[in-house]
Amino acid sequence: MSANGTVGWQDLQAKILERLHTRYWGPGELIPGEAELAKEFGCARATVNRALRSVAEAGLLDRRRKAGTRVAVHPVRKATLDIPIIRKEIEERSFDYGYSLLFRGIKKAPASCRSRLELEVGATALRVEALHTANGAPYVLEERWINPKAIDDLDKEDFMQLSANEWLVMKASFSGGDISFSAELVTKTQASRLRIPEGSAVFVVDRKTWNKDHAITWAKLTYAPGYRMHTLI
Amino acid sequence: MSANGTVGWQDLQAKILERLHTRYWGPGELIPGEAELAKEFGCARATVNRALRSVAEAGLLDRRRKAGTRVAVHPVRKATLDIPIIRKEIEERSFDYGYSLLFRGIKKAPASCRSRLELEVGATALRVEALHTANGAPYVLEERWINPKAIDDLDKEDFMQLSANEWLVMKASFSGGDISFSAELVTKTQASRLRIPEGSAVFVVDRKTWNKDHAITWAKLTYAPGYRMHTLI
DNA sequence: CAGTGGTCTAGACCACAAG
DNA sequence: TTGTGGTCTAGACCACTGG
Question: Which residue in A173, A201, A230 is closest to B201 by CB distance?
C-alpha cells in the first residue's frame, strides 16, 4: 500500500502470491477475472493486470483470453541468470582480473564450427584462445571461433590486451544467442592451460550469438573446478 | 504496428532495439526521455514506458529517476531458465519417465544440511534418495533433506510411487529458493546408482527452497553425463 | 458469438536522486 | 529544487478463443 492509500501492483502481487501459497486458490483452479479482482481490491483493472501478469511470468499462473486465469498445476519456475562479461564477473567477486592470449589466427573451420556459424565447407574463421585469471589463478578458458564475414576490422584487433569476449560486446551488438551449460572432463590441453589435474570435472558454457540471422561467434568457456553458477528464484 | 494504426509497445521495443544495434544510441549514451520519445513516435508515454522497461529488464538499458535512461555500457544479459519438475522435464523430451526410491528415513542431519535448513545441532531430518529414469536409463539422482518441522503429514508419505520432488511441489508451495549449478566428479556410490563409470563428470544442481524464512528442503540433483541445460537469450 | 485478457490513451500524482 | 522515471486511473477498443 502506497502512502497515497492506493493499492500498488506490488502490493497486489503480494496478496495474490499469498492466496497461492495458502492454497486459497488451489492448483488448477480458475481465479476471478481482472474486473472482479479490481472491484474486490479497489483498484483499476490495469493494476490487476500488471500484478497478474508478473505472477504469470514467474510461471505460477496460466492466463488465456476467454479461458481466464488458472493456477498452474505444475509451476515451471523461471530462474534468471546474469550473463556478465568475464572481467566484470571476476571483478564483482573482488578478485584481480587478468587476461592472456594463448592463440589467435585464421584457421580452417572444423565441421562443428561450420554448422554453428553457418559457414561453407572449406571456409576459414578466426580462432581465439585465451585465459582469464582471478588473483593470478586460472579462472576460465575461452575457446572461440569468430565469423570473419560478420565483423569488420577483425584483422585490426590483435586481442593481446582486450579479450575477444569484451571486444565483441563493444564492437558487435547482437540480437540473440543460445547458451548451454554442461559438465565435462577436461582435455589434456585444457588441463595444462587451466593448471588443473587431468580428469577434473569442469563446468562448460557453450554460447553462440548472432545478429539478425547472421552468426557472429561461437564460444566455449571452460571454468576451473569449483566454479558455481548461482541464482535466486 | 497494430491494425489500428497505433504504435504497440512491442513495435516500439523493436525500434528501440534497432537503435541500439545500429549504435544510433551508443554505449553509455543518454537517450531522450519518455515524454520526448512519446511525441516522436506518436504514442502515449505509458507505451514508451512499457517498451523501455522491457528492454531495461533485458539488461540493455539503465534507467534511473532524474538521471534518465542510458545505454548499458556492459550489457549484463539475462537468461531465463525453466525449472520444471523432473517428470515433466523428461516427458517433454519424449522419454518414458521412471522413478525408483533408493532410501527413505529419518537421520541425524550432517552439518552441511543443518546450516542450510537452519537446524540445531543433533537435530534430525528426513533423508530421501531416489533415481529418475528416462526410457529406463538413469537420468538424474535426487538426494534430498527435508525439514520435518516445515511439513505436515511427512510421515504419511512413503515416496514409493511419487517422488519427493513432485510431492513437495504439490504439498508445500514455496516462496523462494536458491539454485546453484556446478560440475563435479561422481562419487563411487553415485556412479553405481547412475550406472556410469567412476570418474565421470556430472552436472549438479543444488537447490534450497523455503517458505517465508522457513527452510523446507535442500536437494542435490546429479544428472547423468551428457546432460545439458539450454536456454535462449 | 461473447467473455476474457491485452493493450493504448490522456491525465495525474508521486518517489527518487542529481545537481 | 526540479527533472525524470514509476505508477495509478478510468475508459476504451481489440484480439483471441472457448463454447
Answer: A201
List the single residue in A27, A182, A185 with the smallest CB-CB distance to B227: A182
> Residue B4 has what pLDDT?
62
What are the residues whose beta carbons fall under 8 Å from the beta carbon of B11, sequence distance 6 or more? Answer: B1, B2
Rounded-to-integer distance, Cα B73 and Cα B95, Å: 44
Report the gap between the CA of A30 and the closest CA in chain B (Å): 17
- Give per-residue burial for B49-74: e unless 16+ CB within 10 Å, then b: bbbbebbeebbbbebeeeeebbbbee
Contact B203 A183 (CB under 8 A): yes
The one-letter code for the residue type at B109 is: A
The pLDDT value recorded for residue A43 is 97
Nucleotide nearest to A6 (CA to C1'): D8
Phi/psi at B100 (nearest 5 deg)?
-145, 135
Interatomic CA distance for residues A13 and B175, integer angstroms: 13
**Which residues from B are below 8 Å from A77, CB to CB?**
82-83, 177
pTM above 0.85, yes or no: yes
- Per-residue pLDDT, A204: 98
